[in-house]
Amino acid sequence: MRNFGDLFLGLDLGQCSDYTAVAVVEPAELKGEWDPALFAWRKVVQLRVRYLERIALGTPYPDIVERIRHLTRSGELAGRCRVVADATGVGRPVIEMLQRADLGCRVMPVVVTGGDKEVQDGEYYRVPKRDLIAELQVLLQQGRLQIAAGLRDCETLVGEMAEMRVKITQAGNEQYGAWREGQHDDLVFAVALACWGARQAYPLDGVQYWQVPM
Fold first, then answer.
1. Which domains does the chain show, CATH number per domain?
2. Of 208, 214, 213, 212, whose CA–CA distance to 30 is shortest?
3. CA-atom Rg of the chain in angstroms
């Protein structure tokens, strides 16, 4: 197993009745199946959820920004993380607060859309919600997303994942969200954002190989 250099902090910024959620994901490169045709081992990129946190409802944005600064400046995250922040509801003001907070790392603002194509607009990324959730589901199905059982809020995250469903609107559009009214999905999206950030840096698709020394 080989760990990559960066960790990815997904930040789902809540509003009023919604929690702000934090998830830290670490990519790791594992040895996969043996390919006799190429006489080499396949490489498999696995993502590991290393940290989860729900910030208390009603926490002011300046306090949230300070909490993120503390995390990115502490422990294993210091000097080796990227913050992937949901800029959909809060807009530019909170993102600018994060950018001015001396986090010691890059901030990647993501605007979640109902479209069908990822685009980059300056330093902002516009990403379909469908892509974020579908990719998370694929990672789980393939066993490439690992969640440690002892993590804080782990059970809440697993519960949110179990409640995620695809809804079809009258206009024929897909909606990804909680199955029941009142269900939160903040931790799911924090993890999805972190996984999306990891994919930008370390593509998870395609086949790579470890060559056997001759």
1. 2-211 (3.30.420.240)
2. 208
3. 18
Q: What is the DSSP string of 136-199?
A: HHHHHHTT-EEE-TTSTTHHHHHHHHHHEEEEE-TTS-EEEEESSTT---HHHHHHHHHHHHHH
CA distance 114 to 153: 28
pTM for this model (two decimals): 0.83
Question: What local confidence, expressed as pLDDT, does residue 179 receive?
Answer: 35
**What confidence tens digit (pLDDT) does each residue in 73-115 have?**
999 999 999 999 999 987 789 999 999 999 999 999 999 988 8
φ, ψ for residue 148 (rounded to 5)? -65, 135
Q: How far is residue 180's CA from residue 167's CA, in Å, rounded to a whole number?
A: 11
- SS3 for 68? helix
CA-CA distance, 50 to 68, in Å (whole number)? Answer: 15
